Each structure stands twice: as structure tokens, then as C-alpha cells.
Amino acid sequence: MTLKIGVVGTGAIGREHIDRVTNKLAGAKIVALTDVFLDACKQVNEQFDLNATIYPTDTELIASDVDAIFVTSFGGAHAETVLQAVNAGKFVFCEKPLATTAEDCKRIIEAEMKHGSRLVQVGFMRRYDAGYKQLKRAMENHLIGTPLMLKCAHRNPTVAENYTTDMAVTDTLIHEIDCLHWLLEDDYKNVQAYFPRQTSHARVYLQDPQIFMLETKKGVVISVEVFVNCVYGYDIQCEIIGEEGIIKLPEVPSITVRKEEQLSQAILNDWKERFVAAYDVEIQDFIDCVRKSKKLTGPSSWDGYIASVTADACVKAQTSGQKEPIILQDKPAFYA
Ligand code: NAI
Ligand code: ISE
User: Fold this and answer.
1) Half-sphere exposure of 11 (CA within 13 A, CB side)
2) Which of 7, 35, 78, 270 to mutate to test the pocket of ligand 1 (most atoms within 8 A of CB)?
3) Quick one: pLDDT at residue 99?
4) Are 216 and 151 contacting, i.e. CB atoms less than 8 angstroms apart?
């Protein structure tokens, strides 16, 4: 059976996912669209030759005969759409963040538990990236013994004018928040934020770069540099230092050039290119799980909740300058 997908939010990443489902992946079809700007849906229908039904609201789209919903709208709108879809018993792939408050994440968790099986996957695509998967395997095989410290960086060449200091957490650091606790199989305990000297490439109201020091329950100390006007490229770094050795996220493969007395390698400029393969694998995995077993295995609503609670503490740490505790509820057996 071909999975019938409805998309809520036909902006940048919505279109990326529509393109991959339509032109690259197998087993699914985009049959329904909605957006607060309905013209955007018309454009998408034409651009990808979809002939999808355009619904004026997410409520009507969810009530149609779609099997699954992609939630790719603005982050603040995710929770209400996801809740409606879960209450209707529909599968959901929700781009990060699952919701912008921990309370809303809890409402989604409660609705999903009431339904009785997992319906929601959150778009933390790094778990599907080949390099991060190698790190995960190395950790599972205890290649470097007990992990002690992590040094990570999330660098963008530049960001849009509406990017604010807290978005360094809610838009950017959120990816590290998810994938680092997954790599370590450990929960966060506290976080402190540091503001180094500001780059002259950032707008005056944006603190850039920022450094977050996270401590886990097992005592691992993690530093993540978020530097979103680094100018030189899109660069993701992750190094895990253990008792027996060090492992590092591989660089994106690229030819080395020897020319004019220089030895060089290209650095990517765009997050879409850096994680293109991970998005493909992530969405194919969602489609396959729903079609073949109706059992989702990707990042869950609980992972969305962890990210939300941790992000709240990170944002608080930005203004307090203090170590802020990260306090999670006990994990329900449902998400074990
Ligand atoms: P965008 O602004 O390009 O697109 C969002 C679309 O949603 C717009 O067309 C807007 O009109 C529509 N929209 C807003 N509120 C709506 C509502 N209540 N109902 C229906 N449509 C609504 O934003 P972008 O970059 O596509 O981001 C969308 C989401 O995807 C965000 O949550 C963002 O954080 C996430 N994202 C995830 C990435 C990843 O690497 N996993 C990368 C980029 C974005
Ligand atoms: C963007 O919203 C994303 O989610 C990308 O994955 C991230 O790397 C980028 O920094 C964000 O702006």
C-alpha cells in the first residue's frame, strides 16, 4: 500500500521533504497540503506536479483519508497540529521542535499513551547521519571506554535577520541537545552558558558566538560552541574523549586540491547539503515503519520532551549566567 501523506506547512523544509517523497523515496505519495498561505500550496502543487488536495486548515487535512501527516510549519504551531493528529490516530512526522514548551510536549505524550502505541516521530535527523551512526556504534562497542568529555561545534556561515539570541538554543543547539544524549545514553543534569567576545559579523542584538557547558548525570562534561556568523561555511564538529581514546565525527568527504602552493579541501555552506542523506534515510525509515509494521523506531515524543526541557534550561542559562538544573520527569515505560 502506498502511504498517503498530508503536509502542514509548505515552506523551506516542507518543500524539501515533499521533493524527496515525490522524486527520491519509495512507498509514499503527497496527497494533501495546507499552509496559512494557501498560495504556497498552489505553488507546491505546480512545482512538484502533485495534484494534491489543498485544505484550508490542518483540522480538515487531518480529517481527510491521509495515513500520515508531515508537520513542517513554524515551530510555535507544531503542538496543536500534532495533538489533533494523534487524537485522530494518525501517524505524524514532526519537524523539530515537537513543541515550544515542555507542557505541550507532555500533552502530546499523554495523548500518544492514551492511543496506546507510538504515532509520532520527531525530525532529529542527525541520528540518521552516517557519521553520527559510526560514533553511536563506537560508543555501543565501548571503543574508547568510558566517555569523559565532548567538544562540539555548530557553525553556520550566516543567519537570517530575524534570528535572535535564544534561537541559538531553540533553532540550532537543539540538534546537539538531541543527538548527544542519544550518543551517550545519559541524561543531562545542568547547563551554563558563556558569551565570548561578539563577532563583528553578527547583528548588534545577536550574541554570537555562544558556548554551552552541559553536564550529564554520569558526570560527562560537554562543551558546544554555537557560532552562526562564522562566515567560512556550515561546519558541524563532535569529538568524544574517553578513557581509552578519542573518536571524532568524520569530515564531509571532498577531494583534496593541490594548487598554487596550497593543499585544500572544500567546506560545505548549507545545512541542507550537509544532511541531505540523513533526511532521505530518516523519511524513508518513517515511511517504511508505518507501512510495514506500524511501529515507529525514530526519535520519539519523549525525545521531543527531553529537548524542550533542556532547551528551556539553556535559554534560562543565557540570561542568568548561572548553572541551571535540567530536571526531567521519570521516563514512562511506554517509551522504553
Ligand atoms: P518556513 O518559514 O520556510 O516554512 C514554514 C511554513 O509553515 C510557511 O510556509 C508558513 O506559512 C507555514 N505555517 C506557519 N504556521 C502555520 C500554521 N499554523 N499552519 C499551517 N502552516 C503554517 O520554515 P522552515 O525553515 O521550513 O522550518 C519549518 C520547521 O522545520 C521549523 O520548525 C524548523 O525548526 C524546522 N526545520 C528543521 C530542520 C532540520 O534540519 N531538521 C531544518 C530547517 C527547518
Ligand atoms: C536550521 O533550522 C536547522 O534545523 C539546521 O539543521 C541547523 O543546522 C541550522 O543551524 C538551523 O538554522
Assistant:
1) 9
2) 35
3) 96
4) no
Of 106, 76, 103, 73, the residue nearest 92 (C-alpha) = 73
pLDDT of residue 201: 98
- The CATH 3.30.360.10 portion of the chain extends over 127-270+307-335
At the topology level, CATH places domain 3-123 in Rossmann fold (3.40.50)
Q: What is the pTM of this model?
A: 0.96
**CA of residue 172 to ligand 2 center, whole Å:** 5
Residues forming CATH 3.40.50.720 domain(s) in the chain: 3-123
All three cell numbers of 182: 542519544
pLDDT of residue 252: 94
Residue segments in the chain with a per-residue pLDDT below the cut of 70: none
Model pLDDT, residue 24: 98
The pLDDT value recorded for residue 242 is 98
Pocket of ligand 1 (CB under 6 A): 8-14, 34-37, 40, 58, 72-75, 77, 95-96, 123, 125, 171
> How high is the pLDDT of residue 307?
98
> Which amino acid type is present at position 260?
E
> From ligand 2's centre to the CA of 271, what distance in Å?
6
Q: Does the domain made of 127-270+307-335 have the CATH classification 3.30.360.10?
A: yes
pLDDT score, position 120: 98
Ligand number nearest CA of 34 is: 1
C-alpha to C-alpha distance for 197 and 238, rounded to whole angstroms:
23
Taking the CA of residue 125 as reference, the ligand 2 atom at the shortest distance is 6
